[in-house]
Amino acid sequence: MASGPSARSLTVLTSTRADYGLWRPLLTVLEERGTIFPRLLVTGTHLEARHGRTIAEIVRDGRKPWREIPLDLADDTPATATRALAMLAEALGDLFADPGGRPDALALLGDRFELLGAASAALVAGVPIFHIHGGEVTEGAFDDAIRHAVSKMAALHFATTPAHGRRLLQMGEPAQRVHVVGALGVDAICKDPPLPEAALCRMLGLAGSHLPRPLVVVTWHPVTRDPDATRRGLDALMAALAGETELHVVWTAPNADPGADLIRTAAREFARRHAARTIFLDSLGHRGYVSLLRHAVAVLGNSSSGILEAPAIPTATIDIGPRQQGRPKAASVISCPEDAPAIAAALQRVRDPAFRAALVDISHPFG
User: Fold this and answer.
1) Could you give the CA distance from residue 44 to residue 68 in angstroms, rounded to a whole number?
2) Most buried of 60, 121, 197, 298, CB within 10 angstroms?
3) Measured distance CA(25)–CA(314) in Å, rounded
């Protein structure tokens, strides 16, 4: 990696398996060009065994983390989340006060709760923030408020669609600081070669070199604006899947938001009861996850991956409940209420040959 004496340092914060996969193509470009020197600050679920310790994916890519900041995410309570963002703010406050640790800028992506701690520390220390995915709306999650708060602390904005750029302008951000660049997740799919099917089988603990079909990939995250909706949607999702006995299911673990332990426990129990056709796992890593989507008839649940990445493949999405409400959606995305018959109908629709044939011609709002 070239980095001459005039190279600027950019601290890139990654706290989850998902955001690292989005950062990867940009990190590669920066490393190749050498005019901006990216320093990876690894924190959050990357360092947690109960979330798969996904720092291993970063190391496998040949990247050495610049700093690791554990946040002790021992459970999914609001108190733990609050302590975690405070721990990150304190650690970064100390780091930015050290001339050797102070970067020229801090790059943040999205809307995870820990970003509040990072952005606050940078704002107070006078470190400019570059924010990606600002101006978006997700009405069912407190991520929405976090995203807007980080945007108001940022110096530069990299929006994913013109509409999101306009929203940033409506929030009072100067036009010269708002840039519409598309979604890094789409770039990752276009640039990262998929893993071979046999490699995916090994990752899933399956014998042979071919995945079972038809296959759906499930991810269900807490609906943090409405905790009751977390349980409602989860029950409806499991009831619909229980009735689709010919479907094979790969269920990936939820994020670390409050309410995640309920989901994790229920998903593990579902996988135990339907062991012949269901696999539950903490993480495949971003590249493994996106590679698996290429073999699925649909991604099912309420993850942003169904809105951002799946349409770029293209793979159908069944988006359940309010968590992603407010985001633009491609024609490959079927929005469903938290209702088992509606989800079952959507599972039938995504297997319809006419629907599948139409996927090749969809337009993706995120690039």
Assistant:
1) 9
2) 298
3) 19
Question: Do 8-182 and 197-361 agree at the fold level?
Answer: yes
8-182, which class in CATH?
A: alpha beta
Q: Which string of DSSP letters, residue by residue, matches 249-295? A: EEEEPP-SSTTHHHHHHHHHHHHHHTTTTEEEES--HHHHHHHHHTT
For 40-99, how does the pLDDT look when each residue is reduced to its tens digit (9 = 90+)?
999 999 999 888 899 999 999 999 999 999 999 989 899 999 999 999 999 999 999 999
pLDDT of residue 5: 52
3-state SS assignment for residue 348? helix
Q: Is residue 153 a contact partner of residue 92, using CB atoms and an 8 Å limit?
A: no
Taking the C-alpha atoms of residue 104 and residue 96, their distance in angstroms, rounded to an integer, is: 10
Q: Where are the domains of the chain?
A: 8-182, 197-361
Instruction: Report, as an integer, the average pLDDT of 199-211.
Output: 96
Amino acid 118 reads: A
